Each structure stands twice: as C-alpha cells, then as structure tokens.
Amino acid sequence: MKSVILYSSSKKHGNTAHSVQKLAPKLQADCIYLDDYEINDYCYNHTNSDDGFRTLFRHLLNYDHIVFASPVYWYATTPRMKAFFDRITEFMDDEALQPELRKLRNKEFSILSNSIKQAAPECFVEVFQRTCEYLGMTCRSQIHHQYPYEGDK
Ligand SMILES: Cc1cc2nc3c(=O)[nH]c(=O)nc-3n(C[C@H](O)[C@H](O)[C@H](O)COP(=O)(O)O)c2cc1C
Q1: pTM value?
Q2: 50 alpha carbon to ligand 1 midpoint, in Å?
Q3: Which of 116, 117, 145 for mutating ligand 1's site (highest number of atoms within 8 Å of CB)?
Q4: pLDDT tens digits, residue range 130-144?
Q5: What pLDDT, in 10s, does the model give residues 54-65?
Q6: Staple partner for 110: which of 18, 24, 28, 67, CB 3.0–4.6 Å?
Q7: Are 109 and 67 in contact (CB under 8 A)?
C-alpha cells in the first residue's frame, strides 16, 4: 500500500508541514508540497491544461492512499488545494481522460487538518469527504492537530 501526503499551506515550513512530518514516517509516505506547483484555477475550455496540474495528478495515481493535508483558513482549505480539486473536473469533462479518473475508485484517502481549534469544522471536512467519495475513493482516516494561536507574535 503506497501512500502519499499532498499538503498545502501558505507557509512551506509551518504547522501543516510539521503535521505532515509527524505522519509521513508512520505511513512511509512520500510528501508533496502542492504550493510548489503551478495549479491554475479551473477553466471551462481547459486553457490551463499545460500547467503543473495534469503531471501532478497523474503522478498521484501511482499511489493507493492519498492524504490531503491542509490548515483551516476561514473554515476552508487553502486556495491551491481548492484549485487542485476543481481541476480534477477536467478529467471528467474530457472522455479521453475519464479512464484515468476512474483509477481513483480503487484508492483510499485521508484528511490531515490543523488549526487553532481542537477539531476541524464540519464544513471543512465535508468538502474533502464528499468530493473524494463522489470520485469513488474510500475514507481511511481523519486526523486533526491543534496548534497554538500565533497571531500576537
Ligand atoms: C488566513 C487564515 C485563516 C484562518 N482561519 C482559521 C479558522 O477559520 N479556524 C481556525 O481554527 N484557525 C484558523 N486559522 C489558524 C490556522 O488554521 C492555524 O494557525 C494553522 O495551524 C496554520 O497552519 P500553517 O502554519 O500551515 O499555515 C487561520 C489562519 C490563517 C492564516
């Protein structure tokens, strides 16, 4: 069972990265910092298709278990993680790409969230859960880490 942690945060070495580093050895997972990639917003006519999304998505299809790691930013995930999920739609739009998309049906996903609260808001978790389940993936685990508020520093 090959695992990968796909993480996004405005801080490459912030709390999300810390959570990822704690989990990765337990899963023997590879780690990918999503914000290193150019992932443009979804576009109906796919004019963005030559950015980093398709190569990254196809790379992720080599794993059996994908952990989506994100901080809670105003009850939601990061803009880059949202763009990543939106762009998966491209593989639905185009019949030629649909067989690749179907590979997700055999895969597991987990959610690794962090925030200053004890738990992730339901609306945050639901976005991952509903989207991944819609794509046919199975939820393995949901982990949340609480970090101290650092706003006054
Ligand atoms: C723009 C922004 C919005 C945030 N919104 C929330 C929030 O809605 N709920 C919460 O509990 N924490 C919120 N936080 C706190 C972060 O979730 C928390 O500090 C997290 O550990 C930051 O991870 P990072 O270092 O990877 O960015 C917010 C932080 C930022 C910068």
Answers
A1: 0.97
A2: 31
A3: 116
A4: 999 999 999 999 999
A5: 999 999 999 999
A6: 67
A7: yes
